[in-house]
Amino acid sequence: MKANEKKDMHPFAATLLRWYESHGRQLPWRGTHDAYHIWLSEIILQQTRIEQGRDYWLRFVRRWPTVQQLAAATEEEVLRMWQGLGYYSRARNLLTAARQVVALGGFPQSIDGLRSLKGVGPYTAAAIGSMAFGLPAAVVDGNVFRVLSRHFSIGTPINTTEGRRVFDQLANELLPPDRAADYNQAVMDFGATWCTPLSPRCADCPLSASCLALENGTVGQLPVKERKLKVTTRHLAYIYIRYKGQTAIHRRGEGDIWQGLWEPFNVSDASTAPDGLVAAAIPPGARLTLIRKNVRHILTHRILLADFYLLETDERPTLPDDYIWIGEADIDNYAIPRLIEILLEAMSNSKEVKKNKVTAFL
Q1: Rounded distance, CA 208 to CA 72, Å?
Q2: d(CA 150, CA 334)
Q3: By C-alpha distance, which of 337, 342, 347 is closest to 84?
Q4: Running along the chain, 362 residues long, what does each successive block of 10 average in pLDDT?
Q5: Residue 42 catalytic?
Q6: 313, 296, 310, 305: which is closest to 350 by C-alpha?
Q7: Angstrom distance (rounded) from CA 150 to CA 195
């Protein structure tokens, strides 16, 4: 092919682009080439449904309209704004990357440059590069894996090195270079709304005539994924202390899944803690109430089962040095994990507080 000749668009891509004109999702960060808005949406939407992510994106843009303003924020402010989205390393990476962008004088305009930003992997770099700068880079995420594996009947496991290579190569072969942004958004939207994991719309699918999985009756079996993930279960126990309108919290340390987030008195490891730790936190005459037991909270690699207690006391307990005392009403100013949000919501139900009174730990 000569240098000045255009590569013919693959029928698969042409069909998707026609479908996208009528069925593409209307999202607030679409129709713009603003790299900050696009990058922010992509980071928020990692591991997050669009319905939830849209509201968070709007809040971030209102609070920090530019990457320079975000870069000037504190980690505590960003974590607080992120609260409820989970996977809090994304929020810390977001702040680090914003500061990188400011230091560079703007967003990098190459895939390698975008990959140098904290928290930006191959998919995110391709999304930002194609949508903000028109770079001919194909996105490959869960939706793309599903659509391509079904349409072209590819049984290579998507979570293997070989699978990644096969799908990356195919995605880039299908990509129309002059319409990379539209095509990337089209294939993602198609996977999210049409070629869904369960109950895909095969009957009225514009690609049904050429879909090999539909022809072979294997739609429900694709994509293939090797089972590698070992899920562990961990038990947690918390005591929320109520002392003259105050409560005690401490901040999780580095290297933790909830790094930088705050939590009430954690007695999860009381059995292995120094003698007297729990006893010291429960002064004589204090009232301990079980709020919830075995609250189930699922993370990617772990299932958490949490017990939550309310301790009401007129005598200030002795706690480890890393705990601080704050007004109960001020806890909303601190970023906390979703699990702690759930437990605090449960505590507000006074009927359950009265019903589940126990004397554990006393």
Answers
A1: 50
A2: 45
A3: 337
A4: 58 97 94 95 92 95 98 96 90 97 98 97 96 97 96 95 96 96 97 96 96 95 85 88 92 81 82 51 80 84 87 88 92 89 80 45 36
A5: yes
A6: 310
A7: 9
Of the candidates 159, 300, 180, the one whose C-alpha atom is nearest the C-alpha of residue 225 is: 159
* pLDDT for position 122: 95
Tally of residues, the chain: 362
Which residue's structure tokens are 């998707």? Answer: 16
Dihedral angle computed from the Cα positions of residues 322, 334, 308 and 361, in that order, rounded to the nearest 10 degrees? 20
- What is the C-alpha to C-alpha distance for residues 196 and 214, in angstroms, rounded to an integer? 13
> Looking at 5, 21, 42, 77, which residue is catalytic?
42
Q: Which amino acid is at 4?
A: N
Tokens of 342: 């759930």
pTM listed for this prediction: 0.75
- The bridge status of strand 232-243 relative to strand 302-313 is parallel
